[in-house]
Amino acid sequence: MEQEPGGFAEFVSARSPALLRTAWLLTGDAQLAEDLLQSALARAWPHWSRIGDGQPEAYVRKIMLRMHAASSRRRWWRETPTEVLPERPSVDGHAAADDRAVLAAVLASLPVRQRQVVVLRYYDDLSVRDVAMALGCSVGTVKSQAHKGLNALRSALEERGELSRSFR
Amino acid sequence: MTADLTSRLRRLPPDLPTPPDRMEQIAARVRRRRRRRGALMAGASVIVLGGVVPFILDPLLGRDRPPIAAEAASLSCPREVPGPGSWVPHVPRGVDAANRLVPADTPLSAVVCAFDSVDTSGAVLPAPLRGRAELTSGLRDLARDLAWVAGAAHGPPDFCSGGGPSTTYLLGLTYVRGTVWVSASDGTGCIRTSNGAFDTMRGLGPQMAAALDAGRWTGLESPPSAQGDCPAVGWGRHGQESVLVPPSPTSLTVCRAVADGSSAAVTRYGAERAAAVAKALNGLPNDEGRLSDQEEDELELHFHYEEGPDVQVRVRGKAPASAGNGTVVAKDVDGVISALLRQWTSAR
């Protein structure tokens, strides 16, 4: 195997789980998330000597976001937005998993930029400024997209009567 | 309400498995990206060099346009080779490699193919492909190493121990304008390394095996005592298969054997005197035989060049002495060379 740059393997080992979860929230699919993560890491590899000592996670995340946006435009990920969300889950032993499925479907239905903002702001817990830097947009855009994204999530879940239920 | 949403969002991702070979998969993606980039560069080069530049220059120079045969991607290994021997899929195409093992230009891509070992003393059977590796680095060194390899003299090899197991390798190189295949063997020395048009007796099997394992060109093995003023010359220099001293040496180091078997520099001459010695040696009659292994070297003449490896000419025996570079042997050396060297040595 080609020798990886110094510190790269350690970074992959340490930060891949978190980046993979972000990728999953963006793509909604485990295989696509792994593909997106690996693609981003492969693009970071040649520049590692320059970025390894800085903020490599922010760099890799930024690559992931750009690739995700570009591939969504090309429908690379075979996303099929739908207006019909999964059936409302029944209250039984599978309710928690069903809750996740509903929320994931609602998240996937958001426009790409809104979805990215919501994931970075409310899952990765980045500041508005860091989200703006990651996405290459203004702070105002982040705020407006976050507001719209949350409202869309809330509306979709309220329509299904999901939001009032506590998450198990 | 926002807190509830955020909380649910943070619990959303499922347990995601970690592939055990994630690093290998990432490395493979890096290699694929580099290959694609190489192909794109080659494509751009073809458009510029093969299309635009000749389109402008050729009419001005009054020449016909050459065929463009760019193959930027790595070559595909044949599924089998006919058996042990210097077989290549085709002679060099689109590049000038009839007088050298490979062009001096850095190839765009290189692939090493290894075929199952066969017994050269047995029936000659097709040997199936056993493995392949695309070389991802060291291509400039590969060109530098192989472009200067000395050619083979006519006639049978000097050292050939007969049959035995032998692995055949093919090295496939792509250039902007063409391709070159080189066959090599790690066998008994009976099989020439060849590109189909140019042969060398230098066995490149170990280098091919090392490149196959490493995925990069690891270089030629350095001969023992490769350092110092009088280094051993292991791989020779292109051109010394036809003339004792190839043209345009830039300096000459005269060495004499010392008691421990090594050599010590006696004196060093510049380009003018190096050229004079070379001219004198090349003007001597060739000897069809080989230098005697029974006699110790009287002198070693190390010719240095601006580019590429040195040439080592050994002068052996008392009068009449002969001199050889490992391939070409000249006789009646005493009178000419000894007189020159004595004259210059006494003049110092």
Explained architecture:
Chain A is mainly alpha-helical. Chain A has 8 helices and no strands. In chain A, helix 5 crosses helix 8. By secondary structure, chain B is an alpha+beta fold. In chain B, 27% of the residues lie in helices and 22% in strands. Chain B has helices at residues 2-10, 22-61, 139-147, 205-214, 271-282, 333-347, and strands at residues 80-81, 109-115, 118-119, 127-134, 165-166, 168-175, 178-185, 193-194, 199-200, 251-257, 263-269, 297-304, 311-316, 322-324, 329-331. The chains are: A mainly alpha (168), B alpha+beta (348). The A-B interface holds A 1-2, 4, 9, 12, 16-17, 20-21, 24-25, 30, 33-34, 38-39, 41-43, 45-46, 99-100, 103-104, 107, 118-119, 122-123, 150, 153-154, 157, 163, 167 and B 1-2, 4-14, 16-19, 22-27, 29-31, 33, 136, 215.
Set out the fold topology:
The complex is a heterodimer of chains A (168) and B (348).
Chain A lengths: L7 H20 L2 H15 L3 H4 L4 H18 L21 H15 L2 H12 L4 H8 L3 H21 L9
Helix pairs in contact in A: 1-2, 1-4, 2-4, 5-8, 6-8, 7-8
Chain B lengths: L1 H9 L11 H40 L18 E2 L27 E7 L2 E2 L7 E8 L4 H9 L17 E2 L1 E8 L2 E8 L7 E2 L4 E2 L4 H10 L36 E7 L5 E7 L1 H12 L14 E8 L6 E6 L5 E3 L4 E3 L1 H15 L1
Antiparallel strand pairs in B: 1-4, 2-4, 2-6, 3-5, 6-7, 8-9, 10-11, 10-12, 12-13, 13-14, 14-15
